[in-house]
Amino acid sequence: MTDSARPLLPSGLVVFVKRDCPTCELVVPVLENLAGTGALTIFTQDDPSFPSGMPVEDDTALETSWHHSVETVPTLIVVEEGVERSRTVGWDRTEWERLASRTGLGPGLPDFRPGCGSLSVDPQNALDLAVRLGADAMQSRRVRYAPLEDEMEAAFDRGWTDGLPVVPPTERRVLAMLQGTTRKPDEPVAVVPPDLVECTVEKVAINAVMAGCRPEYLPVVLAAVEAACTERFNMHGLLATTMPAGPVVIVNGPIRRAIGMNSGGNVFGQGNRANATIGRALQLVIRNVGGGRPGEVDRAAFGNPGKLSFCFAEDEEGSPWGPLSADLGAKPGVSTVTLFPGEGPRIIVDQLSREPDSLARSYAASLRTLIHPKLVMAFDCVLAIGPEHARVFSEAGWSKEQLTARLHELLMIPTAELVRGSGGMAEGVPVDVSAPALPKFRPGGILIVYCGGDAGLFSSMIGGWVTGEVGSQPTLQEIRS
Amino acid sequence: MSGTHNSEAPSGGVVVLDPTGERSLPVRERIPRPATLEGLDLALLDISKARGDVFMDRLAELFTEQGARVKRFSKPTFTKPAPPDVRRQIAEECAAVVEALAD
């Protein structure tokens, strides 16, 4: 919205009313009193003949109400030379008398009556008004498809999709998406690789629309974009690598439930809109804003299906342990995303272990195979523990820290098994390593998260990409509203 | 842009917001190919992939035989873009650059 588009209010007292509001009806005698003694301008939202017998400004188009953020009727505003000095909403005798510099207003009226909702914020009108009056606030280039162009095909033709159809990002849809955050459309979010383009809230919202997000998912998408574009997460390297990994988005905190994310059955699978579209929106931002496309800077030899969207929530309520976000330093009750540079998930089946150490050994044997059984220390992992497996640990009184420590212990591998040539395999660590054993994962390199369906003695593991400063490290980001 | 707020304008098709970075990349002219390597300062940028140095060493020999003065540079890691300082130094000090990948 440009300032020139905003109509100035006349000087003096200004009041916004509608006939369909008992409080507005109640204050008619007060308005008659004020009109008779000084400058009073009445804007009527629904019926220009209300209040009867008085001159009113017709605001049935609601433009003046919308531009001046009127949320309640009646709203009384003091204006001096076009500048608002103060306002009050509803009927509050003390406030009205203060604003009008008068005493004895509405002698027969109660002292206080709350107002009614302004028609300009009525859900049926608000989005139309925003599109009609506020679309200029969005700076992105408008693209008009040709009259005979199919709107779904048009996005494919312009290279804007990940291979699946996208929702056309019309002004109306993007404005509705922007309602999901209090952040302004032109606020910078991140500098997106590989083209290193500064990305605004608006650009993220456009791609979130295309991905199929609902507005309430937008804060999660924004946090995911912020986390991905940090030096720590190194989205550039993760994109450019020949390895299959992509950004895996793990959501913790109250927002998981608020937006209906799945942390239970089929947690890594299809069928939940939030899970499916939040990760997709992140990838569309990388593709469209950053210019990161397969075959170009994205050099993945195999990739993985999770590069369309890999996003899920932890089942914090069901977990016997604290959440992943707390392990990474988040305060309790704070909603976060954790980005992990991950490949596709693989199952760990163990239907017979009833003792925690037996199950930990199953995990260790499985985790050792990630990337290659003879390659160590270069990659982190996510271990997603399902409810039936977690019960084995919780019933034995094992904490998450205890399990993690035991896994690191079990994953100290004799160097003789790892060196190049051992086991008849050329791959492995250099033969001149002097240590008798090497850890599969660096300290902190096993991230444990609780999720999955409540039937099945399974867990799942997600292999990583090069970790440490030259690669990508798990990155926690707080979700802001 | 005023006057185009309806997504389904009667005069045309659907109006959408551009989801891209809106970078209209100008086509940049390449500098002319040098006629000779004699006396040129030539940068060899090793991106720090395994055995890239082997390739670079051989290139350095060949360029030196042809009269070029070879200057060696390297990226700290192949997983990240070359630091701006390295790019600037190459641009300031050298007439041409060879960036090499190996594995």
Topology:
The complex is a heterodimer of chains A (481) and B (103).
Chain A: E1 12-17, H1 22-26, H2 28-37, E2 40-44, E3 57-58, H3 63-67, E4 72-73, E5 75-80, E6 83-89, E7 91-92, H4 93-100, E8 112-113, E9 116-117, H5 123-134, E10 142-144, H6 151-157, H7 171-178, E11 188-192, E12 197-200, H8 201-211, H9 218-228, H10 235-240, E13 246-252, H11 255-258, H12 273-289, E14 311-313, H13 324-327, E15 336-342, E16 345-349, H14 356-367, E17 379-385, H15 387-395, H16 400-410, E18 412-414, E19 437-439, E20 446-450, E21 458-466, E22 475-478
Parallel strand pairs in A: 1-2, 2-3, 13-14, 17-20
Antiparallel strand pairs in A: 1-5, 4-9, 5-6, 7-8, 11-12, 13-15, 15-22, 16-21, 17-21, 18-19
Helix pairs in contact in A: 5-7, 7-8, 8-9, 8-12, 9-12, 14-16
Chain B: E1 15-17, E2 41-46, H1 52-65, E3 69-74, H2 84-93, E4 96-100
Parallel strand pairs in B: 2-3, 2-4
Describe this structure in a few short sentences.
Chain A is of the alpha+beta class and 481 residues long.
How would you characterize this protein structure?
The complex is a heterodimer of chains A (481) and B (103). Chain A has 481 residues and is an alpha+beta fold. Chain A folds into two domains: 3-134, Glutaredoxin (3-Layer(aba) Sandwich); 154-478, no CATH class. Chain A has 16 helices and 22 strands. Chain A has helices at 22-26, 28-37, 63-67, 93-100, 123-134, 151-157, 171-178, 201-211, 218-228, 235-240, 255-258, 273-289, 324-327, 356-367, 387-395, 400-410; strands spanning 12-17, 40-44, 57-58, 72-73, 75-80, 83-89, 91-92, 112-113, 116-117, 142-144, 188-192, 197-200, 246-252, 311-313, 336-342, 345-349, 379-385, 412-414, 437-439, 446-450, 458-466, 475-478. A five-stranded mixed sheet of chain A has the order 3-2-1-5-6, covered by helices on one side. The mean pLDDT of chain A is 95. With 103 residues, chain B is an alpha/beta fold. Chain B has a domain at 41-100. Chain B contains two helices and four strands; from the N terminus they run E-E-H-E-H-E. Chain B has helices at residues 52-65, 84-93; strands spanning 15-17, 41-46, 69-74, 96-100. A three-stranded parallel sheet of chain B has the order 3-2-4, with helices on both faces. The N and C termini of chain B lie far apart (51 Å). Chains A and B meet through strand 10, helix 7, helix 8, helix 10 and helix 12 of A and strand 1 of B. Strand 10 (142-144) of chain A pairs antiparallel with strand 1 of chain B, so a sheet runs across the interface.
